[in-house]
Amino acid sequence: MSNFKQKCVYALIVFIVGLGTFLVKNLTSVSSTIELNSSTYDTKKQNVPYYITIHLAGAVEKPGVYKVIAGSRILDILNTYSNSLPNSNLDKINLAKIVQDGQRIYIPYLNIDSIKAKASKHPPITHLNLNTATKKQLQKLPGIGNKISEEIIAYRHQHGFFYSKRDLLKVKFIGPKLYEKLAQFLYL
Q1: Which phi and psi angles does 104 have, rounded to 5°?
Q2: N or C terminus: which one in the chain shows less Cβ crowding within 10 Å?
Q3: Are strands 64-69 and 51-58 parallel, antiparallel or unpaired?
Q4: CA–CA gap between residue 77 and residue 89 (Å, rounded)
């Protein structure tokens, strides 16, 4: 081999080794820079809250679309953005559920049957004319059911009008305790 060719081969080998060393050093440096930057980015991302959009509907004061902090629970959303209505049925939903982006949260209403059932347990007490009250009206009074209301009407048919509220004590099944409960709601 000629001297010139030999020098070219050595120069080429030195160049390749130098280039390899340079690339290895720089690639390692770039790799650690990427890892350092990505870990810094993740840390910042975890500390900054981000918002999601949800749709609140049903038995609430202010239905609508809201931006809420990710990870919020349904109960937090109701307390913060819109209270539930008195006729809402919160037993039908999981208030501890964490909401998702784009989720529609429907708060159901109490059904009509359950509202009627609650109302019938506590009917309003009115003042009644003892001489003209119907069986149904009498049953709205405390302590008066089907049987006692029938007895009051039967007494009226047999004896005529009541002339005093105390005449009610003559009706079968009505004693002094029941009379005391009823007297305040009756007139002649």
Answers
A1: -100, 125
A2: N
A3: antiparallel
A4: 16
3-state secondary structure of 78: helix
Q: Looking at the predicted structure, is the pLDDT value of residue 102 above 90? A: yes
Q: Which two tokens stand for residue 36?
A: 């350092």
Q: What percent of the chain has pLDDT over 90?
A: 27
The C-alpha atoms of residue 147 and residue 133 are separated, in whole angstroms, by 15
Alpha helix segments (H runs only) across 48-187? 74-81, 112-121, 135-138, 146-159, 176-183
pLDDT at 33: 47
Token readout for 83 is 């209270």
- CATH 3.10.560 for the 51-110 domain, yes or no: yes
| Phi, psi values for residue 72, rounded to 5° | -70, 155
Full strand arrangement of the beta sheet holding 104-107: 64-69, 51-58, 104-107
Burial 82-92 (b: 16+ CB within 10 A, else e): bebeeebeeee
Return the CATH number of 123-187, one of 3.30.1310.10, 1.10.287.690, 3.30.360.10, 1.10.150.320: 1.10.150.320
